[in-house]
Amino acid sequence: MKRILGGLIVMILTAVIANAQVGKVEQEILKLEQQWETALIKADVAALEKLYHDKLIYTHSNASVDDKASYNAKIKSGASKYLSIKRDDIKVTVIGDTAIVTCHWLVHSFGGGKENHTDARYVHVYVKEKDGWKMAAHQSTFVVK
After folding, report:
1. Domain segments of the chain: what residues?
2. Which pLDDT band holds residue 2 (cuts at 50, 70, 90)?
3. What is the mean pLDDT of the chain?
């Protein structure tokens, strides 16, 4: 009976610790998401360089695709300029060394020679590297009304 009770306690403690770790990772990812938003608004390419994985795949809501270098070049040159971002319905799912973020966002931006107002949802994929979490993918999809 003592062995069963001891085994049960170990299982419960393992579950509690695992949940605490997931909660910690979720908070860390949410912090990175806020840093990402701030960096876009401020056109802070140095901050984006730190946040993005070297193999970033950035798929825009218009289906154009950038890698880390091409996307940061657009931000740096002003070809893409984020004027405001409002995000809601943010959810983080952690699976091992991968974190997936889903979110709804309203974006007021300038790009392609015109002002844009985007109502979309996005998915971000973060991977854990030796130097921390890095955004490896962004996929945005228009909300159709």
Report:
1. 2-142
2. low
3. 89
Run of H or E including 117: strand 114-129
pLDDT tens for each residue of 16-25: 344 445 589 9
Predicted structure pTM score: 0.83
Q: Are 54 and 64 in contact (CB under 8 A)?
A: no
Question: What is the b/e burial string over 81-104, where b = at least 16 CB atoms within 10 angstroms of the residue's CB?
Answer: bbeebeeeebebebeeeebebebe
For 2-142, the fitting CATH number among 3.40.50.150, 3.10.450.50, 3.40.50.360, 3.40.50.10490 is 3.10.450.50
